Amino acid sequence: MVPTVIRSRPSTSADVNRRAMTAAPLSPDRSVPFTRAGTLLRFAARRDRRRLVIWVLALAGITVYATTALGAVYPTAADRQARAAVMQTPAGILFSGPGYGTRDYTLGAMIANELGLSVMIAIAIMSIQTVVRHTRAEEEDGGAELLLAGSVGRRAPLVTALGLTALADVAVAVVVTAGLAGAGLALVDSAALALGWALTGVVFGGVAAVTAQLFEQARGATGAALAVLGVAVVARGVGDVLRPGGGPLSWLSPIAWAQQTRPYVDLRWTPLLLSVALIAVLVAAAHRLSRHRDLGAGLLVPRRGPATASPLLAGPASLLARLQRDTVIGWTIALFILGATFGSLTDAVISMVANNRQLARVFALTGASITDSFTAAVTVELGLCAAAFAVASILRVRSEESAGRVELMLAAPVHRRRLLGSGVAVTASASVLLLVAAGLGEGFAAAAVSGDAGLVGRYLVATLVHVPAVLVILGVAALLVGAVPRFAPLAWLVVVWALVAGMFGQLLGLPGWALKLSPFGWTPKVPAEHVNVLVQAGLVVVAALLIAAALAGFRARDVPA
Amino acid sequence: MTTPSAVEIRGLTKSFGDVRALDGLDLSVARGEVAGFLGPNGAGKSTTIRVLLGLLRADGGTVRLLGGDPWADAVELHRRLAYVPGEVTLWPTLTGGEVIDLLGRLHGGLDAARRAVLLERFELDPTKKVRTYSKGNRQKVALVAALAADVELLVLDEPTAGLDPLMEEVFTECIREAKAAGTAVLLSSHILAEVEKLCDTVTIIRNGRTVEAGTLESMRHLTRTTVTAVTSADPAVLAGLPGVHDFAADGHRATFLVDAEALAAVTGRLSSLGLTSLVCAPPSLEQLFLQHYGDRLPAPEQVDPGLPRGDHTSRMRRTRGDHGLMATSSSHSSSSGQSQRAGDGPDGDPITPEHVG
Ligand SMILES: Nc1ncnc2c1ncn2[C@@H]1O[C@H](COP(=O)(O)OP(=O)(O)OP(=O)(O)O)[C@@H](O)[C@H]1O
Ligand SMILES: [Mg+2]
Prior knowledge:
The structure holds 2 protein chains of 2 kinds. By secondary structure, chain A is mainly α. Chain A is 73% helix and 1% strand. Chain A folds into 2 domains: 34-300, no CATH class; 314-561, no CATH class. The longest helix of chain A is centred in the first third of the chain and has 37 residues, at 37-73. Chain A is globular and about 65 Å long. By secondary structure, chain B is an alpha/beta fold. The chains are: A mainly alpha, B alpha/beta.
């Protein structure tokens, strides 16, 4: 998709009429575009009931569980202070918060600092999905046309989507506040923390409301909003590493605003005004944009295309590659930048540890070099990104099936093994490409700041060492798609588990076997540890078995199922 | 050795959970023949076609496609057929031309000249993205892709849904040409005029079971002719004759239906009454259709919004007397050998010749 031209609709007589009407006193127009938003909201809430309840309870449950678990894992102030030292390392800051309260690391400060980022990312994803589901996705499959042809106001779906999202976010805030206060933390600080998280969710709901106007496809709208989320996460992390407690770069990120309320340490509410202001701007922008486009159309208009297919487009593999092209390009750029961001911190890491005796002691204990530990920690995140891509990419085969397009291919002389096999091959190649991009980004940036060209190869190896783990996750997802497609989305659980185990395994003191449930739990922490060929080969064998089972399952079942 | 028929299905069953979608379905399509495949919504047409394409696995019965097993030999068989699905969804970000080429290449290449001619005839712009096509134009993309392929069998599931009358005409010509070239066609459709125009044989299914199969001619033979006559004598006596149904008289003007077998006897009697005017309307496929669609087995899911209420109820009334007809026709079919009936009466009684009485 190459959206280029911005379509500005010429002013029609209807527009003129509308303007004349808005100018009139007691204009009915103010309410007309929103007619029946209330009914629509109730309907949408009913439809999303189960989904949202699961999200809200899961988010609240994780918070409450973490609170209790942390109390058990870090019972004394000394335990918590040791943890605080880890959290002041660059990797610690990158994956948590600005580090308020690390001097006297109470349970509350720990929750706010270490849990906030992940919960906010999750709330943001929930909000983005909800908004896109009820706006662009609805338009895409024609449901909105039915509604709008009825007596529903033209902009009611947008209001509904944002309203439902805000309700869900507030629900998270209420349940989290109750949970934290129930666990014995200060009520006002808990409320501020939870409200900050919820407002961040609404901010990204607003971002999705804007992207939903720009893109014609739900996939594009979601992807663009997620990209904004990614930038916000990285900006906060880098800003905080560059200046402890938050620098100018951090303050550009909505994620930082919630963290800057400093709950349980030195509470202030003012940063949340930034969130509220941005929400107002985004909602207004979305409404403005929606006035300038037709139902079903985006503001970015796609051009015509070629009358004949390029010789490259000749089979299921090239088709899947073509369908994923833009997505893969986007992910590759994103991972290159993310890798480069991590790599460019190498220098900052060294000087930071050099200036901090306590930190120096932490690293001296582990025996590995400072930069190597840091690199190992951040490259796991790059591997997790590649795993997330792999799952999304192989699930595309399932959505192609649901849309009836797999049927079209299988009715041609295309073996089922070839079809799903192509999906797996395209996904695996693209995942490796992403890891190469991430590793090169990291290596080039590190080489540039340190002047050591040898780091390129070293960092590339550190990133590519995650390929077998990514393949195992791909294998699990492929097996679900091939054999039990109804449960295919469960593949995300594996990614979520790998993320939880990778990020919180140590924090929550999870047992070893639980960490080993994630394929990333088996991968050595290169370059702080050595590459273990046996483990790598084992993971590849597991992946191969999973993929073979996936192909056999796909061969034996009904399509569509 | 004769070449096996294009499609041969016997006693096919297929269930989705508790839903029994196909329940002993029979269907055959001879080589080079255009076979109509009819039935109310949810009757099981698309399911049958998916089994034929090896997409769904049959639960029971035998299915042969071009002499092979559609499940085990799918890839080999698909080289020799082309398919237009009932609900055409294509890749929204590709252009129509790209989709046609892609599907053609999956088949092992397509004839560029034939592609160009078809694009021209269907007035299709191949440079537009699929997302921006109207429903009818998306349908045309699938049709051009299927018709451009050089195959022995075309499997078309409601291929003209969404086409305008002009394009339907183009489609009709294309199918006639395909038939002339020796291609067999399985055509599922709700458009009776199209089936009447194109098809050599017709199979009507309902609730996953074949209720009528044979040539259109033989089926016409099974249904009643509508007679409107004006006689000088009182026509009321005709009402009592065997084979006369739905008799209505308005003075000397009588309108009624006559079974094919009784036609000779009834016309003889008409002339003895002093015939002054006579109009005989041959049974249309629509009548045949309504007879099978209207007289439904109790199945809550089978609601056909396409059927006008009035027709539906009048059919229900008429089917009361149909019992005799069905019995007659079943004995008839065994003698003619051209047509067969696999249906039950409305109350599930097996049909036996004794009912003729
Ligand atoms: N994947 C499925 N799961 C469950 N039930 C199904 C599935 N596919 C079809 N059915 C059921 O099987 C029956 C036959 O459906 P089918 O699509 O074959 O009907 P059809 O004759 O093609 O109807 P139409 O004229 O509306 O296209 C219906 O009752 C339908 O609900
Ligand atoms: Mg159908």
